[in-house]
Amino acid sequence: MPEQNLTDLLNLPNLEVVGYESIEDAVVLDVKPTLKVVICPECKKPSARLHDYDAPRLIRDLSLFGRKSYLRIRGRRFECETCESAFTERLEWIAFGSSYTRRFEEYVFTLCRKNTIQDVSQMLELGYEAVEGLFKRQAKKRHRHHKKGSSE
To answer: Which pLDDT value is given to residue 141?
Structure first.
């Protein structure tokens, strides 16, 4: 059962690999969330009422076996059973609206601390602006976290 092995290797919470394909210099893993109930962002109540699915999108993740790795996922939209708001499920391993996993973003930040943005851009085959944006977002996040920790 190769998909189960890939799910274990992927090691992302509440996510299952349901298929995969190899294209040129990349691996694309088809994944789906496994939670049956999610929390409504409006009223904070649990909901299991699946409304529909978004179009599939590719999320860049850490390299797999020396090849670029992407997760193909269809976001799920739920309708709250309490307040009846429709909302897109939030996944803990990706920032809302991002095209990169959190761990990939952290990896880019780590690389940028020891290399130029241009070097990281070439190394990861990612645009300069994308690398710069990821670096700045992570730096800002870490700065906020550091400030919060030192004010206590």
So the answer is: 84
Pairing of strands 50-64, 67-79: antiparallel
Amino acid occupying residue 118: Q
Q: Which two tokens stand for residue 32?
A: 């789906």
Which DSSP state fits 92? Answer: T
Q: What are phi and psi of 83, to 5 degrees?
A: -100, -5
Give me the DSSP letters along 65-104: TTEEEEEEEEEEEEE-TTT--EEEPP-TTB-TT-SBBHHH
Whether 1 shows a pLDDT value over 70: the answer reads no
How many other β-carbons are positioned within 10 Å of the β-carbon of residue 69?
20
| pLDDT band at residue 22 under the 50/70/90 scheme | very high
User: How far does the chain reach from its first CA to its final CA, in angstroms?
Assistant: 49
pLDDT digits (tens, 9 = 90+) for 33-61: 999 999 999 999 999 999 999 999 999 99
Nearest Cα residue to 103 out of 72, 73, 144, 59: 59
